[in-house]
Amino acid sequence: MIPGVVIIGFISRRAYFSLPLGNPTVRAVSPTQLKIPLPDGTPVNVQMATVQRLVPRNNRQDEYTVRSDANLSEKHRIWGRYFWQNAPGVDALVGVDGFSGDQPAQSKQIGGGWNWSISTRINNEFRFNYSKLFVLFGGGSTGGKGQIPHPDDIDKALANFTLNFSGADLPGGALLAVGPATNLPQGRSVEAFQYTDNMTLTYGNHQLKAGFDLRKLENSAPFLPFVNGQFTFNTLGVLATNTPTATNVAFGPATLVYGEYDKFGYFQDDWRIKPNLTLNLGLRYEHTGQPINLLNDVTVARESNNSTAFWRQNLPIEARTNPRIPADNNNFAPRVGFVYSPRFENGFMGKLFGGDRTTIRGGYGVAYDATFYNLLLNISTASPTVFLTSAALPVPSAAPTGDVVRGAAQTSGLIRTQPLQQFHRHAGEHLARQR
């Protein structure tokens, strides 16, 4: 265990008053000295103040669009489009605590279509689209010692120090935490391929439409709160002796890549029963896969291996893994509508509806929501996917990044793999002592 004075020095060099980003200045309140007594009685003075910080933020966004259309013949028309948008988000995460990171966002899209007039009654349209979007929280800033790393290093950020001093230890109020927030860095990258085809047939009083929509989605989500650790100190005494009141640290996959295939199909008949009445009759089918089953794959693979399992192997595999959820295969969505023109020529009704200038429309349909990925992220950061432990683990290093904190937690036994084997070993040692 490193001495408390080292921890005090680490906090004072990275506290909101010490980090230079934005030229922090002391507000019109007298600075105070926080006197922290070491175990040998030596007081350590840490300057505290009410700080204000002004950081210019560049809200620049660049974008451009390119499109081209071509009529190859009377029957064939094609088009293509490219769209690009970028927002650097430099130092967008900066706060009064002085820790900062960029929040870059970028989206790009390329798509095209081919319209084929097969005959005077039949037309087919095919479309393709590829898009990619990412939004990241961390990396690339000018924060120096207060840098929030890139999400590629999500599990190597500095730990968070929560200082819940009160009363005689800190007259006047609480202190801001030191270090990045426990849910940073994080981000999301979404990539999608889409293929769509629609065919229209005009037959007598019927306009028949049918088509399909196929999508391949891949969603990368670096997100795991407490993966870098959080140390809580409630008194100056526990800070001076490096005996935190509580330590929270999470073990589990910090970045997950969800994938799914979405399949949609529909048929619709716009039936013109009379010159002034058309019925819209259709049926749509939707199948959006089950991306949450990634958590089943991850936990089953881990818990089936004795060298990597988090939970005791004498429990059934179903009790220590995420369940496999069947896909929803019965999403049939009917559509019923109408378009009606009363065409009253005379009398009160004619005046009310304006002759043939009134059109009445109505409809009914069923729709299904797509997967809301925030729910998946909430589940993926809880048991049994993640092991979150809370104990009084001392700060293990003068540079307590997430990998160092988790390593110390494993060394101390707060988290153990091979739990069943260790249980059997400890039980054997206990029986041997009894004999």
Structure description:
The structure is a single chain. The protein contains seven helices and 18 strands. It is elongated and about 100 Å long. The chain has a ten-stranded antiparallel β-sheet with strand order 5-6-7-8-10-11-14-15-16-17, with no helix packed on it. It has helices at residues 4-14, 236-240, 293-303, 347-353, 373-380, 402-412, 419-434, and strands at 25-26, 32-37, 43-48, 51-52, 62-71, 76-87, 105-117, 122-137, 160-163, 186-203, 206-222, 230-233, 246-251, 255-274, 277-287, 331-340, 360-365, 387-391. Strand 10 (186-203) and strand 11 (206-222) form a beta hairpin. It has 435 residues and is an alpha+beta fold.
Shape: elongated
Helix content: 10-25%
From the alpha carbons, calculate the radius of gyration and give it in angstroms.
31 Å
Percent range for β-strand residues: 35-45%
**Number of E-type strands:** 18
Question: Tell me about the biggest sheet?
Answer: 10 strands, antiparallel
Q: Which sequence of strands runs across the widest sheet?
A: 5-6-7-8-10-11-14-15-16-17
What number is the mean pLDDT? Answer: 87
Number of helices: 7
Structural class assignment: alpha+beta
Order of helices and strands: HEEEEEEEEEEEEHEEEHEHEHEHH
Cα-to-Cα separation, first versus last residue: 36 Å
The parts where pLDDT drops under 50 for at least 5 residues are 421-435
Topology:
Layout: H1 4-14, E1 25-26, E2 32-37, E3 43-48, E4 51-52, E5 62-71, E6 76-87, E7 105-117, E8 122-137, E9 160-163, E10 186-203, E11 206-222, E12 230-233, H2 236-240, E13 246-251, E14 255-274, E15 277-287, H3 293-303, E16 331-340, H4 347-353, E17 360-365, H5 373-380, E18 387-391, H6 402-412, H7 419-434
Parallel strand pairs: 9-12
Antiparallel strand pairs: 1-4, 2-3, 5-6, 6-7, 7-8, 8-10, 10-11, 11-14, 12-13, 13-18, 14-15, 15-16, 16-17
